[in-house]
Amino acid sequence: MRVDRRRRRTAIIGAAVAALGASALTIVAAQGASAAEGCEVEYDVVGDWGSGFQANVSITADEPIDGWTVEWDFTGAVSGISAWNVTGQSLNGSHFEASDAGWNGSIASGQTKEVFGFTASGTAGDIVNAAVNGAVCGEGDGEQTTEPEPTDPDPTDPPPAGTPVERHGQLSVCGNNMCNEDGQEIQLRGVSSMWLHWQTQPYAQNLSALEWMRDNWNIEVFRVAMGVEPEGAYLDDPDGWKAEVETVIQNAAEAGVYVIVDFHAHQAHQHQSEAVAFFSDLADRYGHLPNVIWETYNEPEQVSWTGTLKPYHEAVTAAIRAQDPDNIVVLGTPTWSQDVDVAAASPVSGTNLMYTLHFYSCTHAQWNRDKANTAINAGLALFVTEWGASAADGGLDGRVCLDEAQRWVDWMAANRISWTAWKLDVGTDSTNLLSDGAPLTGGWDGHLHGHAPFVIANLPQ
Prior knowledge:
CATH topology of the largest domain: TIM Barrel
Mean pLDDT: 85
Largest sheet: 8 strands, parallel
Oligomer: single chain
Distance between the termini: 27 Å
Radius of gyration: 23 Å
């Protein structure tokens, strides 16, 4: 089942269609030099983050097409565009034009083919005056139909065969380990997004990218790090960023991958009411899914566990449990999620609770593992939701410390501690997994950066 909460709109050219955020517009084009009559161009806005958006473009051919050029005018204010799988792309004012890349130029009779995608700066709006191979879209009668909005992911729909969720099902905490629905101890491994509002492109929200990582990197879990406090993050736009998190949850359900919903904050205890509202709503609507893991606080700073963090976790966990009685909740620990031994001395009451441990191998070494071993011996279940083979700043100096990182990876394997590595984005930091030019949709074998080869080598083989 395609998990998609977008409202899909189908219109014949000539219809005045209002902009509705994330939507799809199908345009009926007249026959051109090599475009058959009845050819359709579908403009599908799959992500909108206010200052920009992402869209996919599909063509349906009643008769064969061998090579295409598509053009249209945007109704929204678009100031820049970056498309993939095309040649000759151009944006002049509101007018956009692009041609096939050769391998995607042929479309069989009756076939619908997604031919390219793009990200753009500005507002999405709709597209008008579309043409295929120079043939302006035909006249329409203004008819517009609206299909029912798709429902949320259905827990009775089985995850895709062979996927991590199909193999392991509903997770639980057994002792101080994670277990699958058969009660077997498991270790999940995967990667984390960048702070969503600081991504160079919306890699985290792209279903094709997630499926590519599942099939090529063998990730089992993906962490969506929703920034909370910085300018432009959740506190500035709660509805917008919660919607982006929902996109990742829905994609993960469709891909059969576990997803960690991370309230990515350093002062979340100062925003407890916002955290309660955020998790209450999402737990109500997605807590029925077996692949969702809640992370209530990314990296608390140097604040009291018993006086500040534990009461915060108790309040937020209670809100989650009112809607979702069984999915795992991961609790942040003091000193940027280093002091798991402090949390172990006074754990939060409840079931299926785990505790966050973070490390960066150029900064954190055996002394930090000793603290973690103390917590494990006290019965605490740990989840390393973020780590890097770099300094604790994420590798601003570009260094990697692979020997110490291997000690950490071996220790996590020995203790069956699940992990997600930081971070899926492009940039110079040594924890950025991708290099410049990495396409949005996957296919990154030639675009690995920093500690990425080490991370990928330690994912399931």
